[in-house]
Specification:
single chain, about 180 residues, two-stranded antiparallel sheet, 6 helices, 5 strands, about 10% strand
């Protein structure tokens, strides 16, 4: 069990370090620095800076996840003009992807996009969810995949019936799998 605890601690430390670098990148961007300059200052690639600038960092520093948004609407071949159908479809996919996360140990954002019929992104190749294996029976050391469907309906649904999704990705996981 100490190996699992060490891996969880290492992952949490890495996530906190990444969060601090993301916040710094966003501050530098607000101060007018270019993405290239930010990448040089933080010793990361320009594509990483673009991912960081398009990601919302939660105010609560104890929350180890990041939030990425997308619109589920007419651009998806799964979207219908029936709100109840769309919500049922999204909840079913959310449940399916949580099972997939438990089974394979990781899940990329692009896998979510594939399931709901949205285009893949560069960001989606890097960020996602991890499970570090069970620390105790039934505990998979993970935050489940969440589309943000429990949000206030007035902010969740647009006038055309599109649904605003907010994914709670853990962060960049490519190096952790």
């Amino acid at each position: 069990m100490s190996i699992i605890a060490d891996r969880i601690r290492q992952h949490n430390e890495k996530a906190m370090n990444q969060r601090m670098r993301m916040i710094r990148a966003q501050q530098l961007h607000e101060d007018g620095h270019t993405n290239v300059r930010i990448a040089n200052l933080l010793n990361v690639s320009e594509s990483t800076v673009r991912v960081w600038l398009s990601t919302t960092v939660p105010e609560d520093s104890s929350d180890a996840s990041l939030q990425v948004s997308a619109i589920f609407g007419p651009a998806s071949h799964h979207w219908k003009h029936i709100f109840e159908y769309n919500m049922m479809f999204l909840r079913q996919v959310e449940n399916h992807l949580n099972n997939k996360l438990v089974t394979q140990g990781h899940l990329f954002l692009n896998e979510v996009y594939d399931e709901i019929g949205l285009k893949r992104t560069v960001q989606g190749q890097k960020v996602g969810w991890l499970t570090l294996g069970p620390a105790v029976p039934g505990d998979f050391g993970m935050r489940p995949v969440d589309f943000g469907l429990a949000a206030n309906m007035s902010t969740l649904v647009s006038n055309d019936g599109s649904i605003h999704l907010t994914f709670n990705v853990h962060g960049e996981i490519i190096e952790d799998i």
